Amino acid sequence: MLDIASIRAEIEHARKNVARMRRDLLTLQRAGRSTTVAECDLQVMLNRVDTLIGERKRLNTLELRERLPKRVLGGRSW
User: Fold this and answer.
1) Residue 10 lies in domain
2) Structural domain count of the chain
3) Is position 78 within any domain?
4) What pTM, to 2 d.p., does this model score?
5) Residues of 66-76 as b/e, b for ≥16 C-beta within 10 angstroms?
6) Residue 43 Cα distances to 37, 38, 66, 73, angstroms
7) Residue 16 falls inside a structural domain
8) pLDDT in the model for residue 62
9) Which of 31, 67, 70, 75 has its CA 20 to 30 A from that of 17?
């Protein structure tokens, strides 16, 4: 199981790759070349980033739940 720090690092790495892919896509468009394969690759990478962000969010909520005290609604705090 991955921890939250490795998920964050992987998201950052994937975002850098997305930026590079977008630059490459723009270069292909300017050159008048077909961009369908590059667009598909970009979409796959964007889906991967979305998945990683969802995993990070899930881990954040689990971490938050562990830190909160377990109380009954309306229960006494003594």
Assistant:
1) 4-65
2) 1
3) no
4) 0.76
5) eeeeeeeeeee
6) 10, 9, 35, 45
7) yes
8) 84
9) 31
Amino acid making up residue 55: E
- Name residues whose C-beta falls within 8 Å of residue 8's C-beta, 6 or more positions apart in sequence: 56
Q: Is 73 within a domain?
A: no
Helix (H) or strand (E) holding 26: helix 4-31
Query: Taking residues 27-47, what's their average pLDDT?
Result: 95
Structure tokens at 36: 């369908």
pLDDT at 64: 78
pLDDT at 66 over 90: no
Condensed to tens digits (0 to 9), the pLDDT of residues 3-31 reads 889 999 999 999 999 999 999 999 999 99
- Does residue 8 lie in a domain region? yes
Across the range 53-64, mean pLDDT stands at 90
